[in-house]
Design goal:
alpha/beta; EreA/ChaN-like  fold; de novo design (two linked rop proteins); two-stranded antiparallel sheet; 10 strands
Length: 453
């Protein structure tokens, strides 16, 4: 037994040595691949002078070449509430409008509420600060950078030299970030309010069917509805949509094309929320994400994609749109990372849906960051992450197109592998950069966004 024991120990030791050698070789290969990517990126990165709007635009000219054929340029932000991505969005949107003929911006905020913002930028009354505060969801109405964007759009449209006016859209589920979609009924109310102006009798009939359930059209209220009542809500929403489509000519005559299109989309948004509430699981006792939450996330992201396609239809064949949302929404990839480790299966992002519909006319730029300034959550940068590799390139702010014929074999290999990518200041997702994104915007350090008093 003694010799057998020692023999087995020697065998395990030999095997362990082989595994260690393989691991070390693997780490060395990964480091070489990362080094090759950094060398390639260093020679191909386009430095950006500043994230702030105004001044010389020469540093943004590479974007014009990169996205020349794109109908949609999607810019992702690594976290909500950071100044640099929002400021870059504003600067890039101005460039896209003035240099490349873009006609609209669509952001990760409630669709129904955003109609108020669009009316303002097209010449409506009020102030940018007040309109943003009441027209954006998820807390975005409190950010100074959003006020600056809306004010610039208002001023641009007020210039008579600009014959084509630019437009603003939210594409997210309405009432997001508001106490568990507590005001989701805004979608139904908006559609019915339009009908009341254009066809009072029909609107009154529809409202009578829905009124008993509207106060429970929310995340906490919907589960309290009996299955039969949920079906009644769904049927009533379908009825509104059917009537709007059937009576289109009359309704447009009695109102306007724009008001009609928004009313119909509000009703579609109600249908999206109804589908979301049907699959949204109840909260867990410990606050963790339920395994089936991916179903609700799939509804949300597919809805945002459908709403963006509606925006494109509204903008017409010559319309071009900048899309701004979280990196995890715009990427062409399923959601994999610590935040979603409890999911029974990965959720599908908006970018996957848009990629299937738009193909090469969609150009996706993800924003990467390496550091957080004081006032933001602090975290150690993962040395194997995309962000750590980009931090080695040199410039504190730059744009890098990923799909390029000049890539080295080592860089191409690294971009085709799965890597960690930092989001939400202190966590990460896992992505294959070359398939998830078309380009990367690197910001060395994030600071807190300005907030309205």
């Amino acid at each position: 037994m003694r010799s057998l024991f020692h023999g087995r120990t020697g065998m395990f030791a030999t095997a362990a040595s082989v595994l260690l050698l393989v691991a070390c070789n693997g780490q060395g290969s990964a480091q070489q691949s990362s080094d090759a990517f950094v060398r390639w990126a260093t020679s191909h990165a386009a430095p950006i002078r500043t994230e702030e709007a105004g001044g010389d635009e020469a540093d943004l000219r590479p974007l014009e070449k990169m996205a020349r054929a794109a109908r949609v340029v999607a810019l992702g932000e690594p976290a909500h509430g950071a100044h640099e991505p929002l400021a870059l969005r504003n600067r890039l949107f101005e460039f896209l409008v003035e240099r490349m003929g873009f006609t609209a911006i669509a952001i990760e905020s409630g669709l129904s509420e955003s109609q108020r913002v669009q009316k303002f930028v097209l010449g409506g009354r009020g102030t940018a600060r007040d309109v943003v505060r009441h027209g954006l969801t998820w807390g975005f109405g409190e950010l100074d950078e959003n006020v600056a964007l809306v004010q610039w759009m208002h001023d641009y449209n007020a210039n008579p030299a600009h014959s084509r006016k630019i437009r603003f859209y939210g594409i997210d589920l309405s009432s997001g970030g508001d106490a568990a979609f507590g005001r989701a009924r805004v979608t139904i109310d908006a559609a019915l309010s339009f009908l009341e102006r254009a066809d009072t009798a029909s609107a009154n009939g529809m409202r009578a069917k829905l009124e008993p359930y509207l106060d429970r059209f929310s995340s906490p209220g919907y589960p309290k509805l009996a299955p039969m009542d949920r079906d009644r809500v769904s049927a009533a929403i379908d009825g509104i949509i059917s009537m709007l489509e059937r009576e289109r000519a009359t309704l447009v005559t009695n109102s306007s094309e724009a008001d009609y299109e928004w009313a119909l989309r509000n009703a579609e948004s109600a249908r999206q929320l109804d589908a979301f509430f049907r699959v949204e699981p109840p909260p867990t006792a410990d606050g963790s994400m339920p395994p089936t939450l991916y179903r609700a996330m799939n509804v949300r992201d597919s809805s945002m994609a459908a709403n963006l396609e509606w925006v494109l239809a509204r903008e017409g064949a010559q319309g071009r749109v900048m899309l701004y949302a979280h990196d995890a929404h715009v990427m062409r990839s399923a959601l994999i990372g610590p935040l979603w480790k409890s999911f029974a299966r990965p959720a599908t992002s908006m970018g996957v849906h848009l990629g299937q519909e738009l193909g090469p006319s969609l150009f996706i730029i993800a924003t990467s960051s390496a550091n957080n300034a004081p006032g933001l959550p602090q975290a150690t940068l993962d040395s194997s992450s995309v962000d750590a590799a980009l931090a080695r390139v040199g410039p504190p702010l730059f744009l890098l197109k990923l799909r390029s014929a000049e890539q080295s074999a080592g860089a191409t290999s690294w971009l085709a592998e799965r890597h960690r990518f930092r989001i939400n200041f202190d966590t990460y997702i896992e992505v294959v950069p070359d398939s998830a994104f078309d380009a990367l915007m690197f910001v060395n350090s994030l600071t807190r966004s300005g907030a309205s008093p």
